[in-house]
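Blinded run. Sample ID left blank on purpose so nobody reads anything into the name before looking at the predicted structure. Input follows.
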Amino acid sequence: MANRKYDLTSGSILKKLLLVAVPIMGTQLMQMAYNLVDIAYLGRVGSAAVAASSTAGFYMWLSNGFLMLGRMGAEIGVSQSMGRGDVDEARRFARGALWMASALGTVYALLAIALRAPLIGFFGLKEAEVVADARRYLLIVALAIPCTYLSAAANATFTASGNSRLPFVINSLGLVFNMILDPVLIFGLRMGVTGAAAATASAQAFVCLLALGAMKRAKHRPFEEIRIMELPDWPHIRQMLRWTVPVSLESLFYTFLSMLTTRLVAGYGAGAVAAVDVGTQIESLSWLVGGGFGSAVTAFIGQNYGARRQDRIDRCLKTSLAVMSVWGVLVSLALYFLGGPMFLVFLPDRSLLPVAVLYLRIMAFSEFFLCVEGMLSGAFRGCGQTRQPATASICANITRVLMAYALSRTPLGLAGVFWGITISTDLRVIWIGAWYFKTRRSFACGPAEVAA
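Blinded prediction complete.
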């Protein structure tokens, strides 16, 4: 590989993991910060504004299922090809991922815009003002979905090549852009929820321009040259789809089933939806960081899988498990004991504090498992094995809805919904872990070839 700094097949395991993982986790936190910045400002407008943005935000979350096709295709294909020293093959995977991202992002955006009324109506919100604001928010942020998809695929290409620092810098600039624009539009121009949506969409477009520009001009870009406008190679598209369709289905099912549980929460009023949404953003300290570390594990294992370095793969897993276990315990303690003060920073409505504290304390019992899940799923994906974690996740998340519904009909009420989420999460991660450690030797170091 041309740049040994970003070659993950040699050198200290922990040092190389952190080289990739820390910027990715920072990037993931930047994504969380986009939402928290909106919530922090909209919380000053009122809980109804927060409920509107969070309701529309579910469809941005749902869009991640399709975004995964391009992003994860680049992570697996580019990392394995780089590990084999086949830069031309890596370039073909990257170009295919960008094309997939562009096409899928455009289709999803058009559908979200055309169907925004029934999509928001799905949640059964009773407050007319919340429904109207949610529709406007979805309309505006949907315009930037193709940009979000493209920047995700471009950033995944950098990460897979071992350089996750540049995506972090790009997303940091986007966050600063969003933080400046939010108060101007929300309060200065008195646009409220519409202003928050416009600021987010503008920031995503800005990040996309920076990411695509970096692919062509950055000093430490993955390839000296990549013809983005050249048509993709269909065998590489097919190979990426074989890898990523299970991941996409996992994400889509997870989000849709989460929407069903949100319908249960919505039965307790828009205030409960707003409280849980803020709590979810705080809780994402675990699953976003865990997912970010999982992306680093995917890149690390992908390169070593391509280079047939099983020894480094095994050592990577032990190191990753130790790091994520410590982080999971710290987040659990923070949510359980500091959840209330953290909530009030973003939504200073003390009437919603009991619901938020209840949610965060119950979720604290699943944070360790969520951190470990990111690492285990990343290990599967680095080896090109995406079916196993997807199957476990889909089955466990169906159980989540059933448990949440059943427990909500007991004296636990709303707390029953939260316990259903927590228990099903823990069971899901235990299943994925058992599956990985039972089957990991069956797919050890044998990179798939692309069919001509």
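Unblinding after everyone has recorded impressions. The chain is about 80% helix and 0% strand.
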